[in-house]
Amino acid sequence: MPRALVIEDDHKIAELIKIHLKDLHYEIDHTLDGLEGYEMAKKTNYCLIILDLMLPSMDGMEVCRKIRANDIASPIIMVTAKSEEIDRVLGLETGADDYIVKPFGVREFQARVKAVLRRSLGKFENQSSTNNQIIEADGLSIDLDKRSVQKEGIRIELTPKEFDLLSLLAASPGKSFNRQSLLNLVWGYDFEGYEHTVNSHINRVRAKIENDMNKPSYILTSWGYGYRFNENI
Question: Which residues contact 77 (CB under 8 A, 6 or more apart)?
C-alpha cells in the first residue's frame, strides 16, 4: 500500500485527514511535530506528505523548504487557513505542490490528493502524443515514462513540479510560455497572482541542471514574457 506522512498538530484535523487517506487505501504515519516530521521525511520515501503550516519545533514553511533542499521529491499538500493567503503563496514558492484551505470536506480533500498524484505520475498530452518518450538535449536526458532526469549519465532528483516544468518546456523547444500559462498547465489550477511561484521553481530547476545559473543554456528567459527551452542545443 502507498504510504503517506501527515504532519499536523491539531488532533481533530489529523484524524479527519487520516480517515480520508485510509479511504484512498493509504498507510499513514503521523506526527504532531514539525522537526520530527522533517526527520521522518528524510528516512522514508513517502508518496505523499500532508503538511500543516503552524507546527511546534519547526513551522510547515521551514519543513517544506528543508525537504526540498534535501532533494526529497515527495508531493506535498499544505494545509492552511483562509487568512493565510501570503503563506499559501510562499508555500508554493518553497516547493509545495498544492494547498487545501481549512475547513475542507472529504470530496475536496480526496480530489486534491488524486490531482496531485495524477500530475506527479502522468504526462502532458503534448508529450504523450509524440512517439519520443525520452528527450535528449546536450547531455540532458528526460525520460517522460520513468519521470527521471539525467545529466551526463548522472541522475538529477527533481520534485514532481520541477519535473513537470522541465518536461513541459523541453517538449516544445523554442516555444515561450508565459508564467500564467505555466501555472495553469503545471499546477492545474488558476493561481492568478502567483506567477512568482513559477520563477522560484524555474530557479530551483536551473540550480540542478545548469552549469552556470547566470548563463543558463537549457531554460532561457523570454524577457518580458516568460520562459522557453533552448531550441539550439
Answer: 48, 49, 50, 51, 96, 97, 98, 99, 100, 112, 113, 116
Q: Is the dihedral of CA 27, 32, 35, 36 positive or negative?
A: negative
| Alpha-carbon span 210 to 191, nearest angstrom | 27
**What is the fold, at CATH topology level, of the domain defined by 125-229?**
Arc Repressor Mutant, subunit A (1.10.10)
Q: Check whether the bond before 103 is cis (ω within 30° of 0).
A: yes
Thinking of the domain 3-121, which architecture would CATH place it in?
3-Layer(aba) Sandwich (3.40)
Q: What is the domain partition of the chain in residue ranges? A: 3-121, 125-229
pLDDT tens-digit profile, the chain (233 residues): 789 999 999 999 999 999 999 988 899 999 999 999 999 999 998 999 999 998 999 999 999 999 998 888 889 999 987 666 667 777 788 888 888 888 888 888 888 888 787 766 553 444 444 445 899 999 999 998 888 999 999 999 998 889 999 999 999 999 999 988 888 788 766 656 677 888 999 999 999 999 998 899 999 999 989 999 999 98
